Amino acid sequence: MTTQRPTGRGRRRITARWVVALVVAVLTVVFVLQNRDPVNVYLFTLTLSAPLWLLQVVMIAVGLLLGLVVTRRR
Fold it and tell me: How many helices (H) and strands (E) are present in the chain, helices listed first?
């Protein structure tokens, strides 16, 4: 009985994409941990109080959704 070793398919290589993703993830965690205090956002007569990191996440999500809508129409 012979056993065969995987020829690279089971192994993961560290690529630049993985390194960038890891750096972004670490920076995101640091940003969230440092910005947990609530802030006030004023829009016309509406006042919203929420942690800064949550507002940033909401704004990024809105931007991504708007970007998807605009690019799909072309």
Answer: 2, 2
